[in-house]
Amino acid sequence: MLSKKLVLTFVSFSLAIHIAILTAVGIIDGRRNHQISVFTVDFKEPLKDDESATNKERKGNSPTGHEDAEDKSGETINTKSYEREDTVNLGSRNTKYYSYLTKLKENIKKNWLYPKQAYIWKEEGTTVVKFSIVEDGSLIDICIIASSGFKSLDTEALNVVKLCAPYTPLPKNFNLSKLNIVANFQYGLAD
Q1: Based on the structure, what is the number of domains in the chain?
Q2: Which of 6, 29, 37, 66 is 20 to 30 A from 111 via CA?
């Protein structure tokens, strides 16, 4: 009976020490609430009834060899994968895409506006948007990966990315079929 108490005491002591060590190195942090909320916006046009039926009939017969998936609402989702793709931050300077990104950034800046109502209400924040450009310059995906906290600011960031499309085709020397770009849209008011 004494040996069971001794083993139980040893195990409890060992567990307490391990928890203390993990907490000290930051693996366990009881002080923070780690909730990340990400949402995606889909800008595809809704399918007409006859187009929807045609797509459902074709499902699984994709010429790319990839099957389309169906979500819970019954809509077909393109699951085509791209063989050669890369992801880069729009503000990256030390990348082989620097020249392309600089022109793209200038184009977006020319068209980007501070929403009038947000300016009046003094709304500030940073919206982080991820969008994808394919070889011919078409915009194929766009989503918010971090919200500014204000719908008007987030909407304007999405709108300017859409407005600037189509983009310049990807240069052949990139050897990419898809370039994913992460862009920070920082809204701030000078005092």
Answers
A1: 3
A2: 37
Reported as a single tens digit per residue, the pLDDT across 48-68 is 444 433 333 333 333 333 334
E-strand ranges in 13-161 read 69-70, 76-77, 85-89, 125-134, 139-146
Is the Cβ–Cβ distance between 84 and 176 less than 8 Å?
yes
pLDDT, tens digit, 9 for 90 and up, residues 154-167: 999 999 999 999 99
Do 162 and 107 contact (CB within 8 A), yes or no?
A: no
Could you read off the pLDDT of 2-16 as tens digits, one per residue? 677 777 777 777 777
Gap between the terminal Cα atoms of the chain: 74
At 92, which CATH number? 3.30.1150.10
Q: Is residue 124 part of a domain?
A: yes
Based on the domain organization, do 102 and 75 belong to the same domain?
no
Tokens, residue 11: 């195990």
Q: If residue 116 lies in a helix (H) or strand (E), which one and from where to where?
A: helix 116-120
Co-location of 103 and 172 in the same domain:
yes
The reported pTM is 0.58
